[in-house]
Amino acid sequence: MSKIVFEDVHKSFDGGLRVLNGVSLKVEKGESHIILGRSGCGKSVLLKCLTGIMPVDSGDILADDISVGDKKRSKEYLQKFSILFQGNALFDSMTIIDNVVFGASQKNKDKSERRKIAEEKLLAVGLEKRVFDLYPAEISGGMQKRAALARAIAVEPEILLFDEPTSGLDPVTAGIICNLLKETIKSLGVTALTITHDLRVAEFLEDRISLLNEGRIVWTGHARDMENSGNQFVENFHRASNVITQRSAITAE
Ligand SMILES: Nc1ncnc2c1ncn2[C@@H]1O[C@H](COP(=O)(O)OP(=O)(O)OP(=O)(O)O)[C@@H](O)[C@H]1O
Ligand SMILES: [Mg+2]
Questions:
Q1: Atom 17 in ligand 1: which residue has the minimum CA distance?
Q2: Residue 106 φ then ψ, to 5°
Q3: How far apart are CA 55 and CA 58, in angstroms?
Q4: Domain residue ranges of the chain, discontinuous segments joined by +
Q5: Which residues line ligand 1 (CB under 6 A)?
Q6: pLDDT digits (tens, 9 = 90+) for 136-186
Q7: Nearest partner of 40 among 245, 214, 168, 239, judged by Cα
Q8: How do the residues of the chain divide into helix, strand and coil, expressed in percent and rounded to 5?
Q9: The predicted structure's pLDDT at residue 242
Q10: Which parts of the chain have pLDDT scores under 70?
Q11: CA-CA to 105 of 20 to 30 Å: which in 18, 19, 37, 194?
Q12: What is the rounded (10 degree) CA torsion for 107, 113, 115, 119?
C-alpha cells in the first residue's frame, strides 16, 4: 500500500479556472518525493487539497488508505501530516521555544515533557540555547526556517510536507537548509513530499520527482533522466533551469 495516493484529482475555481485536471500520483512509504512545476501551476492548491484545507471537486486523496474526505477519521488522517510552510508561519508573539512547545502540544503530553521535546528538536535542527527565548523577528531567516522545522517535527509526524523550503533564503543558507531537511527525513524515517519550482532543490532532495503541468502529473522519474525523458515539457524545464543556474553563476562572479 502506498503512503499517499492521489486518484484523478480535479479542482477548479469560480470563473472556470481549472487548476487540477486529473492528478494521479503514488508516494511510497519512506520516500522523499518532489512535485516540481512552474509558478502558478497548482502546487500549493495540491498541498491544500492533500491537507483538507481545500475540498477536491472530484477524485480522491488517501493517506494509508484513509480518504481526506472521511469525516469519521479526519483526526487520524490529519495527525499523519506536518507542514513546513513557505513563510515559516511562526507565531510572532511567541518565543522560539514556545513556538515549538506549541507543535509538541498537539500530542497528549504534559507541560515539562513538551518543553523537553521542544528543546530536543531545537538542538536537533542546530539552534543554540541562546536563541530559545528570542522572538522570531529577532533571529535570521535561516534560523526561522530551522525553528519552523523543529516545530514541524515536534508533532512527530509520519509525513512531512515542505512548501518551497528554500524560498527567501540566500543560496548558501538554502544549501544548508536543504542538507538539514535531507538529514531530518533520513533520521526520522518519514515520508516526505516537497513542492518546489527549483530543480536544484528537487535534485538534492529527491528519491523521485513528479512534474506538474496543466493540472496533471506529466512525468515521474529521477532528475538525471529529465534531460532525455522524451517529454518536451520535462526537457524544456530541465534546460531552462540550467540556464538560470549558469546565469546566477555568472552574476555571482
Ligand atoms: N482560493 C483560490 N481562489 C481562486 N483561485 C485560486 C485560489 N487558490 C489558487 N488559485 C489559483 O490557482 C492557480 C494555482 O495556484 P497555486 O498557488 O497552487 O500555484 P503554485 O504552483 O503554488 O505557484 P507558486 O510556485 O507561485 O507558489 C493560480 O492561478 C491561482 O490564482
Ligand atoms: Mg505555491
A1: 44
A2: -65, -25
A3: 9
A4: 1-80+162-223, 86-156
A5: 13, 17, 19, 37, 39-45, 197
A6: 999 998 899 999 999 999 988 999 999 999 988 888 888 989 999 999 999
A7: 214
A8: 45, 25, 35
A9: 79
A10: 106-108, 244-253
A11: 194
A12: -100
